[in-house]
Write a structure and sequence with these properties.
single chain; mainly alpha; 0% strand
Amino acid sequence: MRRGLAGMAILLTVFAVVVVGGVALLLMAAGDEFDRRITREVDRVHREFESDFDGIRQEVRDELDRRLPEPTP
């Protein structure tokens, strides 16, 4: 009887280790995917911001060119 209980305890311990290891791997994979998505989104927002800023900069230059008198030679 004791031999059966010891075998059952070992089996349950192995099962628990496998389950905890599997959950840890899933959490690591989910964290990696979250990190990749955040990085892609930050890069997209950064490119959009740069594009908008370049457009504003050009509009300001155009407006200054329109308002300032032509330089004299």
